[in-house]
Amino acid sequence: MLRNAAFNYGGIIWRAGLSILLIPLYVRYLPDGQWGMVAFCMALQGVLTLFDAGLALILPRDIARAGASKTCLTLIFAKFSRLYFCLAAFALCMGQLLVPWLAAHWLKVGNIAPVDLSLALRLAFVLFFF
Description:
- The chain is an all-alpha fold.
- It contains five helices and no strands.
- It has helices at about 1-30, 35-50, 55-65, 70-105, 115-130.
Protein backbone atom coordinates (compact mmCIF):
# COMPACT_ATOMS: atom_id res chain seq x y z
CA MET A 1 0.00 0.00 0.00
CA LEU A 2 2.86 2.38 0.78
CA ARG A 3 4.34 1.68 -2.64
CA ASN A 4 1.05 2.53 -4.37
CA ALA A 5 0.72 5.77 -2.44
CA ALA A 6 4.32 6.69 -3.32
CA PHE A 7 3.67 6.08 -7.03
CA ASN A 8 0.44 8.10 -6.88
CA TYR A 9 2.11 11.08 -5.23
CA GLY A 10 5.12 10.69 -7.52
CA GLY A 11 2.85 10.99 -10.55
CA ILE A 12 1.20 14.11 -9.17
CA ILE A 13 4.57 15.68 -8.38
CA TRP A 14 5.88 14.76 -11.85
CA ARG A 15 2.97 16.46 -13.62
CA ALA A 16 3.09 19.54 -11.40
CA GLY A 17 6.86 19.81 -11.76
CA LEU A 18 6.65 19.50 -15.53
CA SER A 19 4.06 22.29 -15.60
CA ILE A 20 6.29 24.53 -13.55
CA LEU A 21 9.33 23.77 -15.69
CA LEU A 22 7.52 24.55 -18.94
CA ILE A 23 6.25 27.99 -17.92
CA PRO A 24 9.66 29.62 -18.55
CA LEU A 25 9.63 28.14 -22.06
CA TYR A 26 6.22 29.69 -22.70
CA VAL A 27 7.44 33.03 -21.44
CA ARG A 28 10.70 32.87 -23.38
CA TYR A 29 9.17 32.17 -26.78
CA LEU A 30 6.12 34.40 -26.53
CA PRO A 31 6.47 38.10 -27.28
CA ASP A 32 6.51 40.61 -24.43
CA GLY A 33 3.24 41.20 -22.68
CA GLN A 34 1.56 37.96 -23.76
CA TRP A 35 0.92 36.48 -20.35
CA GLY A 36 -2.62 35.83 -21.52
CA MET A 37 -1.27 33.13 -23.84
CA VAL A 38 0.48 31.45 -20.92
CA ALA A 39 -2.83 31.45 -19.08
CA PHE A 40 -4.59 30.11 -22.19
CA CYS A 41 -2.08 27.27 -22.54
CA MET A 42 -2.51 26.34 -18.89
CA ALA A 43 -6.30 26.43 -19.31
CA LEU A 44 -5.96 24.27 -22.44
CA GLN A 45 -4.13 21.67 -20.38
CA GLY A 46 -6.97 21.75 -17.88
CA VAL A 47 -9.57 21.25 -20.60
CA LEU A 48 -7.56 18.37 -22.03
CA THR A 49 -8.01 16.52 -18.77
CA LEU A 50 -11.52 15.81 -20.06
CA PHE A 51 -9.80 13.20 -22.23
CA ASP A 52 -9.53 11.19 -19.03
CA ALA A 53 -13.10 10.21 -19.97
CA GLY A 54 -13.90 9.05 -16.45
CA LEU A 55 -11.21 6.40 -16.40
CA ALA A 56 -9.82 7.70 -13.11
CA LEU A 57 -13.12 6.76 -11.46
CA ILE A 58 -13.46 3.37 -13.14
CA LEU A 59 -9.92 2.13 -12.47
CA PRO A 60 -10.26 1.89 -8.66
CA ARG A 61 -13.65 0.18 -9.05
CA ASP A 62 -12.19 -2.47 -11.36
CA ILE A 63 -9.20 -3.00 -9.09
CA ALA A 64 -11.52 -3.46 -6.10
CA ARG A 65 -13.57 -6.00 -8.04
CA ALA A 66 -10.45 -7.96 -8.96
CA GLY A 67 -9.68 -8.49 -5.28
CA ALA A 68 -6.39 -10.19 -4.54
CA SER A 69 -6.06 -11.94 -7.90
CA LYS A 70 -2.64 -10.91 -9.13
CA THR A 71 -3.41 -12.03 -12.69
CA CYS A 72 -6.61 -10.01 -12.79
CA LEU A 73 -4.89 -6.94 -11.36
CA THR A 74 -2.11 -7.21 -13.94
CA LEU A 75 -4.63 -7.44 -16.78
CA ILE A 76 -6.62 -4.46 -15.47
CA PHE A 77 -3.48 -2.36 -15.06
CA ALA A 78 -2.31 -3.26 -18.58
CA LYS A 79 -5.73 -2.43 -20.05
CA PHE A 80 -5.95 0.97 -18.37
CA SER A 81 -2.31 1.78 -19.18
CA ARG A 82 -3.01 1.16 -22.87
CA LEU A 83 -6.20 3.21 -22.72
CA TYR A 84 -4.46 6.15 -21.04
CA PHE A 85 -1.56 5.99 -23.47
CA CYS A 86 -3.88 5.85 -26.51
CA LEU A 87 -5.99 8.77 -25.27
CA ALA A 88 -2.91 10.87 -24.54
CA ALA A 89 -1.30 9.98 -27.87
CA PHE A 90 -4.53 10.78 -29.73
CA ALA A 91 -4.84 14.18 -28.01
CA LEU A 92 -1.16 14.92 -28.69
CA CYS A 93 -1.38 14.01 -32.39
CA MET A 94 -4.66 15.83 -32.98
CA GLY A 95 -3.39 18.84 -31.07
CA GLN A 96 -0.18 19.00 -33.07
CA LEU A 97 -2.17 18.77 -36.30
CA LEU A 98 -4.55 21.52 -35.17
CA VAL A 99 -1.87 23.94 -33.89
CA PRO A 100 -1.51 25.86 -37.20
CA TRP A 101 -5.28 26.36 -37.42
CA LEU A 102 -5.59 27.27 -33.72
CA ALA A 103 -2.76 29.82 -33.98
CA ALA A 104 -3.95 31.42 -37.22
CA HIS A 105 -7.75 31.32 -37.01
CA TRP A 106 -9.10 30.44 -33.60
CA LEU A 107 -6.76 32.59 -31.49
CA LYS A 108 -7.00 35.96 -33.17
CA VAL A 109 -4.31 37.79 -31.26
CA GLY A 110 -3.64 41.12 -32.95
CA ASN A 111 0.08 41.73 -32.67
CA ILE A 112 1.41 38.16 -32.40
CA ALA A 113 2.33 36.15 -35.47
CA PRO A 114 0.79 32.65 -35.56
CA VAL A 115 4.29 31.18 -35.65
CA ASP A 116 5.01 32.69 -32.24
CA LEU A 117 1.87 31.10 -30.80
CA SER A 118 2.57 27.71 -32.32
CA LEU A 119 5.41 26.74 -29.99
CA ALA A 120 3.39 27.61 -26.88
CA LEU A 121 0.43 25.57 -28.13
CA ARG A 122 2.65 22.63 -29.06
CA LEU A 123 4.17 22.67 -25.57
CA ALA A 124 0.69 22.61 -24.02
CA PHE A 125 -0.20 19.46 -25.95
CA VAL A 126 3.14 17.80 -25.14
CA LEU A 127 2.65 18.55 -21.47
CA PHE A 128 -0.78 16.93 -21.58
CA PHE A 129 0.76 13.76 -23.03
CA PHE A 130 2.84 13.33 -19.90
